[in-house]
């Protein structure tokens, strides 16, 4: 049996496979120690079926690395780099997110200047030794490191993607002499662009010790024989020990689980072109799936660039717990600040006083207080009205009009996020289905779809726990790239031999890694990708590589024309070779609609358990269930599909 666990800012969601179906549980998160909510939730699920064995596998979506970075509570890490390049983290790129800002505020590097060490060593872009690494330089580095009393180290040398011998030598010395974990760039990220490589490796060194310690404690607290895996930002899973060493790959693990789960649920319902909409308590994550989830190797968190494989997810600070407030100009605003799990929205009755999106829903009757979390947690209607009423008085509105305004502003924020991943990238949202999940997603989905002209909303089974479901169905996955920087003259044949050897070496290494973890190599499939650009360009496009370089270059020309509207008769640079190895997906839990004859209903508050396959419901109506609530506005029709998903369309 497998268990999927997603730790969010407000709730911790758990799904447990059983012979008779899925057992579900949702409880408030414990930010001071995330493992406590996990262990308590697993214990409660075990208590509900005392004769059932404990799960043999737990797949965990964790925010520990993310919070350590955003809250600046990581390890005391040092950076070892080439002498004269100690300030790469500070200099960064000439990137101005706010072009006209008079005062530019950039986040401070995770490794300050006082914890950086320069080494007298240098290699050229082809890996050739320019200034050899001497034993004296190694000893000086060790002495300087010892004086700084670090908890971990990042080793990043110029052109280590071409030859990582010097990095490996320094890293080995640091481990043996200081006994600290070391992240080496040629192992974690053997790609060119020294700033992004340095930033990624420094972040890993900063968050890995905390992540490793957390996962070790959690592993020891699980039942004997239970294996712990962690969701990666790329949508695959990693064993806990490896996730602790490469914690940077888990920065977006929770949202990635949601996208994987939504894509699986959409395929089960026969939908392949979808926009995923995950609205939780603290934030909203949106992503586009056109057959398969869209991946990227560029991301940013807290103003720090990350060059790791991730699912292409856009996040905005609008969730069920987002605070509503009046700005200095008198306008109504929602988010990004959140009430979190403690105290939470005012309606939770835990001491919250400020109005939130959830309180607005309670005021408007879209959240039935007695049905929240299947009746396990009753909401305080009076507290919600009092919180929204206080804001309403400052705006000169009635309580109900203020609540409507809160929801309208929140929907506008989320609609902008969906436009960013669809319209701004050449995709028409009117050709996609909106798959909604998260505890608050179903309350906003229809209004969002109407704003964007989307024809259908799909609500999967257990929508408030779909991220945890994604972790149940996620496959093992490893991905690695290597910079080759091969220039191909326009019209000349492409040299295949050096490329073939690079792809084969990367593939063999990744297959060996997964085989060492117990996966059958016969079940693994490799995907070869090429990252190309025209000579003189700064960024590359990723296209599939089937083995014939000429076809890959032709594919790049087509992709460039599709993305930018033109193609060039110019030399092409083959920047990176990338390989992705994916294992077989675990058996997918079967979801079914409740049994019984179809029903035709209109309006009211309807439990989802009372809607067999083929049933229809006309809005306005509210559909309640354990993990979420779905609001069906006037002029909308709901139909229950055979697999249990709800299809919502405008009349």
Write a structural description.
By secondary structure, this protein is α+β, with helices and mostly antiparallel strands. Among the domains are: 74-213, Rossmann fold (3-Layer(aba) Sandwich); 322-392, no CATH class; 477-582, no CATH class. It is built from 16 helices and 33 strands. The strands form eight sheets. Strands 13, 14, 15, 20, 23, 24, 29, 30, 31, 32 and 33 form an eleven-stranded mixed sheet that branches. The chain has a six-stranded mixed sheet with strand order 3-2-1-4-11-12, with helices on both faces. A four-stranded parallel sheet has the order 6-5-9-10. A hairpin with a 5-residue loop joins strand 7 (122-123) and strand 8.
Short key terms for the protein model shown above:
Rossmann fold; single chain; 33 strands; globular; alpha+beta; 6-stranded mixed sheet; 651 residues
């Amino acid at each position: 049996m497998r268990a999927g666990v997603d730790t969010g800012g407000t709730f911790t969601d758990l799904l447990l496979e059983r012979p008779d179906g899925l057992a579900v549980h949702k409880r408030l998160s414990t930010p001071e120690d995330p493992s406590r909510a996990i262990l308590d939730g697993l214990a409660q699920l075990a208590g509900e079926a005392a004769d059932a064995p404990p799960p043999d596998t737990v797949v965990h979506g964790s925010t520990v690395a993310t919070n350590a970075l955003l809250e600046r509570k990581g390890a005391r890490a040092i950076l070892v780099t080439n002498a004269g390049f100690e300030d790469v983290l500070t200099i960064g790129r000439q990137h101005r997110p706010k072009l006209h800002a008079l005062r530019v505020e950039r986040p401070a590097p995770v490794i300050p200047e006082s914890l950086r060490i320069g080494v007298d060593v240098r290699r050229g872009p082809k890996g050739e030794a320019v200034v050899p690494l001497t034993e004296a330089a190694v000893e000086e580095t060790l002495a300087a490191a010892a004086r700084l009393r670090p908890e971990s180290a990042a080793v990043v040398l110029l052109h280590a993607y071409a030859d990582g011998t010097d990095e490996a030598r320094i890293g080995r010395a640091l481990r043996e002499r200081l006994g600290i974990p070391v992240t080496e760039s040629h192992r974690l990220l053997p790609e060119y662009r020294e700033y992004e490589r340095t930033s990624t490796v420094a972040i890993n060194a900063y968050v890995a010790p905390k992540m490793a310690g957390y996962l070790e404690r959690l592993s020891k607290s699980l039942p004997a024989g239970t294996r712990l895996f962690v969701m990666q930002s790329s949508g695959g899973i990693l064993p806990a020990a490896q996730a602790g060493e490469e914690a940077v790959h888990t920065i977006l693990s929770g949202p990635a689980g949601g996208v994987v789960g939504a894509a699986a649920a959409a395929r089960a319902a026969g939908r392949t072109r979808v926009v995923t909409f995950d609205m939780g308590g603290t934030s909203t994550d949106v992503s586009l799936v056109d057959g398969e989830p869209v991946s990227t190797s560029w991301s940013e968190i807290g103003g720090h660039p990350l060059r790791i494989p991730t699912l292409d997810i856009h996040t905005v600070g609008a969730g069920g717990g987002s605070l509503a407030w009046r700005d200095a100009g008198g306008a109504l605003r929602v988010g990004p600040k959140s009430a979190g799990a403690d105290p939470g929205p005012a309606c939770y009755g835990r001491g919250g006083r400020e109005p939130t999106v959830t309180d607005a829903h309670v005021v408007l009757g879209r959240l039935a207080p007695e049905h929240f979390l299947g009746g396990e947690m009753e909401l305080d209607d009076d507290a919600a009205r009092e919180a929204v009423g206080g804001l309403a008085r400052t705006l000169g509105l009635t309580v109900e009009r203020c609540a409507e305004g809160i929801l309208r502003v929140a929907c506008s924020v989320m609609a902008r996020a969906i436009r960013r991943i669809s319209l701004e990238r050449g995709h028409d949202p009117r050709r996609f289905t909106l798959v909604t999940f998260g505890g608050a997603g179903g309350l906003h989905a229809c209004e969002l779809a109407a704003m964007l002209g989307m024809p259908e909303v799909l609500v999967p089974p257990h929508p408030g726990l779909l991220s945890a479901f994604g972790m149940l169905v996620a496959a093992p996955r490893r991905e690695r790239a290597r910079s080759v920087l091969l220039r191909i003259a326009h019209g000349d044949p492409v040299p295949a031999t050096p490329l073939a050897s690079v792809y084969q070496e990367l593939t063999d290494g990744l297959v060996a890694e997964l085989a060492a973890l117990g996966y059958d190599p016969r079940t693994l499939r490799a995907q070869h990708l090429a990252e190309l650009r025209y000579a003189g360009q700064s960024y590359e496009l990723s296209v599939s590589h089937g083995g014939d370089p000429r076809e890959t270059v032709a594919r790049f020309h087509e992709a460039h024309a599709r993305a930018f509207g033109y193609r060039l008769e110019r030399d092409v640079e083959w920047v990176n070779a990338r390989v992705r190895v994916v294992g077989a997906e675990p058996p997918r839990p079967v979801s079914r609609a409740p049994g019984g004859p179809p029903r035709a209903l209109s309006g009211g508050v309807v439990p989802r358990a009372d809607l067999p396959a083929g049933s229809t419901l006309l809005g306005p109506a509210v559909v309640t269930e354990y993990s979420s609530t779905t609001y069906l506005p006037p002029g909308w029709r709901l139909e229950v599909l055979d697999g249990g998903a709800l299809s919502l369309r405008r009349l």
